[in-house]
Amino acid sequence: MSQAIAPTINAHGAAIPAVGYGTMLFPEPERAVELIGHALNCGYRHIDTARKYGTEQWVGEAIRTADVPRAEIWVTTKVTEENAKADDFARSVDTSLKTLGLDYVDLLLIHWPQPNVPLEETLGALAKAKRDGLAHHIGVSNFTIPLLDEAMAKCPEPLVTNQIEYHTYINQDRLIAACRRHGLLVTCHAPLARGAMLDDPVILEIAAAHGKTAAQVALRWTVQQPGIGVVPRALELSEIEENIGIFEFALTDAEMDRIGQLKARNLRVIDPEVRRPVWDES
Question: Which CATH number do you get for residue 136?
Answer without folding.
Answer: 3.20.20.100
